[in-house]
TrEMBL record:
UniProt-listed InterPro entries: Homeodomain-like_sf, HTH_AraC, HTH_AraC-typ_CS, RmlC-like_jellyroll, RmlC_Cupin_sf, Tscrpt_reg_AraC-type_HTH
Keyword Hydrolase: no
Alphabetized Pfam families for the sequence: HTH_18
Native source species: Ruficoccus amylovorans
UniProt keyword terms in alphabetical order: DNA-binding, Transcription, Transcription regulation
Keyword Transcription regulation: yes
Gene Ontology MF, one: sequence-specific DNA binding
Domain HTH araC/xylS-type positions: 186-284
Classification via PANTHER family: ARAC-FAMILY TRANSCRIPTIONAL REGULATOR, TRANSCRIPTIONAL REGULATOR MTLR
Gene3D superfamilies: Homeodomain-like, Jelly Rolls
Name of the protein: Helix-turn-helix transcriptional regulator
Length: 288
């Protein structure tokens, strides 16, 4: 399982939760975890979200919920234009900040159950998404009790959005939290993203980690729950899914751009991961 760096969240002195806005060329937080419960609105940027033991594409206008201590990492290419900049609104709070007995109140039962289910993370969709986005943007203009009550309204709505919550990580995922492993995994990730569109070498990845190939394979699987080749294929297929939806490039062009040396290998990997062929995937999204 992945080991992540501990991130320290600095709340303002007079507030019980952190309301943070980011506007930068790209997201800079490494693979990390923190004891705070988190809700993140991606205002702009696209890329890959690593959460728990899963990889998935993320896009502008999406909202993600991360339970306490769930490791996550947004990766995106640097965006110089305003449209492509990494902009996000993030709410984070320690559950205990409201007192040990607060979540035991009968009125907070649904919210308490929602926060427990969020240990593996959620993406917010449907009607709940529009309401969540509106509330998080409204918090910009609020302060004090007004902003705090907005947070409670948000949590209450999310706790009742059964059809609007899509799980992110495996239900049984239990993160191994070790700050010392973050630097090594960061070097591995940097190598992978740098070479993703070309030939990725197991030997080079092992050297980036400062290990022999055999030791690296065991280490990587222990840290991520995946074989190195499976991880690379998931990442490449995830990236190709966006290209299939958003571009008019041919399947062959997309396959080669994502690092596959042959169409047959790309088609096989794509079907194994998504259950359909690239052409079927594109057709379904165009029809929808």
């Amino acid at each position: 399982m992945m080991k992540a760096a501990l991130e320290t969240i600095h709340e303002t002195r007079h507030e019980t939760f952190a309301f943070r806005e980011f506007d930068q060329a790209r997201f800079t937080s490494p693979w990390h975890y923190h004891p705070e419960f988190e809700i993140t609105l991606i205002e702009s940027s696209v890329g890959e979200l690593f959460v728990g033991d899963r990889i998935r594409p993320f896009d502008s206008g999406e909202v993600y919920v991360f339970g306490c201590s769930l490791p996550h990492y947004f990766h995106n290419s640097e965006g110089r234009s305003k449209r492509n900049r990494a902009r996000a609104v993030v709410v984070q709070f320690l559950p205990d900040v409201f007192g040990r007995d607060f979540w035991g109140l009968s009125e907070m039962g649904a919210v308490r159950r929602f926060m427990t289910r969020a240990r593996a993370g959620f993406q917010v969709k449907g009607v709940a998404l529009a309401s969540t986005v509106a509330r998080m943007r409204r918090m910009r203009r609020q302060s004090g009790a007004e902003r705090l009550f907005e947070l409670f309204h948000l949590l209450d709505e999310l706790s009742r959005a059964e059809d609007g919550l899509v799980g992110l990580s495996s239900e049984g995922f239990m993160p191994t939290l070790d700050p010392e492993a973050s630097q090594r995994m960061t070097r591995i990730y940097q190598y992978i993203f740098r070479e993703l569109a070309s030939d990725i070498s197991l030997g080079e990845a092992a050297r980036a980690a400062g290990m022999t190939e055999s030791a690296f394979c065991r280490y990587f699987r222990r840290m991520t729950g995946k074989r190195f080749t499976d991880f690379i294929n998931e990442l490449r297929v995830s990236r190709s899914c966006r290209d299939l939806i958003e571009t008019s490039s041919t399947v062959a062009e997309i396959a080669f751009a994502c690092g596959y040396g042959s169409i047959s290998n790309y088609n096989r990997c794509f079907r194994q991961i998504t259950g359909v062929s690239p052409r079927e995937f594109r057709a379904r999204h165009r029809a929808g």
